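Section 3.1: Structural characterization of target chains.
Under the original work plan, the team committed to producing a structural model for every single-chain target entering the pipeline before any wet-lab resources were allocated. The record below documents one such target. The sequence was received from the expression subgroup and is listed exactly as submitted; it comprises 240 residues.
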Amino acid sequence: MQRLYLTDDLAGNAEVEVGRDQAHYLTNVLRMEEGQELLVFNGRDGEWRARLTSISKKSVRLALREQTRVQTPASDLVYCFAPLKQGRLDYMVQKATEMGAGVLQPVITQHTQVPKLGIERLRANVIEAAEQCGILSVPEVREPVKLDKLLAGWDSERILIFCDEGAEHNGPLELLRTLEGRRCAVLIGPEGGFSESERQTLRSLSFVRPIPLGPRILRADTAAVAALALVQAVIGDWRD
């Protein structure tokens, strides 16, 4: 079944009305008709089976039938990333959502090429990815912050996994295994990598754990998927 994110509260026997953009998506893109069903969620009230009860040019009404899944807790994994150029940024945000990040934190570094972000576009990409991959808790997208400010205000109880292209060895698994049971975040740098001063600062902090991502230099968007896959497989929710 198709899935649709709504902002409305969801409860049994309720009816909700979706606006023009979502009505267009349902009727003109998906070509749904009255009587057809889909799944809806809002990140708070679980997932519900809903039926299209009326269609107009400006709106569609949905009747909630039954809850299909109860709400799950939001992921505790924080994903910190230097923004990329738009097409690759869209891809990276979508994949981070699919890989189970609970918070997306843009970080401005010395080599960041795109310091200004369209946060609403990022949130739209997160919602689209959430609709497609079946998750119930929609990741939070935070406002961008400079790297030094992020580090200054960091909760030292949360380990920051720093994906370091300059690491001396290629194997991240042994280090990741030592972090089992700890609250974690992942930090991916910009297309030009971290500056030497940034790398030195990160390596000097007690809550930072540098890890390599293999013997090859990865593009930033590829590194994001690789790092999150490693974290989820070794200490995350892929083990369940």
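Residues 132 and 159 are 30 Å apart (CA to CA).
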